[in-house]
């Protein structure tokens, strides 16, 4: 089997399901990027959409090519791991850089440097 028309019905339905879910999540992330107002709100939607959307599309690809090739396709698992690891790390670094910049420029509505103890109460508060 080497042609997509040779894909069994169960595998085609599974691949179609993961492709629709992945593209829907990615579309939701793109819409969230357009609709949300502040930079900090905009970071979350595309990150989640990219991570879960790309993960679903990669699962569909793994399933399709594993069934067509009659052997497990494992190199796409490496791509999935890289996407799932690097996207949240990139979000965190981008958020910290923006927060540092906003604090340095003293922009409004930026969280301060106050510390929080283990109970969740701010220090200095009764």
Automatic annotation (TrEMBL):
<dbReference type="GO" id="GO:0015385">
    <property type="term" value="F:sodium:proton antiporter activity"/>
</dbReference>
<dbReference type="InterPro" id="IPR005133">
    <property type="entry name" value="PhaG_MnhG_YufB"/>
</dbReference>
<protein>
    <submittedName>
        <fullName>Cation:proton antiporter</fullName>
    </submittedName>
</protein>
<feature type="transmembrane region" description="Helical">
    <location>
        <begin position="12"/>
        <end position="36"/>
    </location>
</feature>
<feature type="transmembrane region" description="Helical">
    <location>
        <begin position="48"/>
        <end position="68"/>
    </location>
</feature>
<feature type="transmembrane region" description="Helical">
    <location>
        <begin position="74"/>
        <end position="95"/>
    </location>
</feature>
<keyword id="KW-0472">Membrane</keyword>
<dbReference type="Pfam" id="PF03334">
    <property type="entry name" value="PhaG_MnhG_YufB"/>
</dbReference>
<keyword id="KW-1133">Transmembrane helix</keyword>
<keyword id="KW-0812">Transmembrane</keyword>
């Amino acid at each position: 089997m080497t042609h997509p028309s040779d894909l069994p019905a169960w595998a085609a339905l599974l691949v179609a399901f993961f492709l629709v879910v992945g593209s829907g999540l990615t579309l939701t992330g793109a819409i969230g990027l357009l609709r949300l107002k502040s930079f900090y709100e905009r970071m979350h939607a595309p990150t989640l959409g990219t991570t879960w959307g790309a993960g679903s599309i990669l699962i569909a690809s793994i399933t399709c090519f594993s069934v067509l090739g009659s052997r497990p396709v494992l190199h796409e698992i490496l791509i999935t791991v890289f996407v799932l690891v690097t996207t949240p790390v990139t979000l965190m670094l981008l958020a910290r850089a923006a927060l540092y910049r906003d604090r340095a420029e003293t922009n409004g509505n930026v969280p301060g440097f106050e510390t929080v103890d283990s109970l969740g109460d701010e220090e200095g508060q009764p």
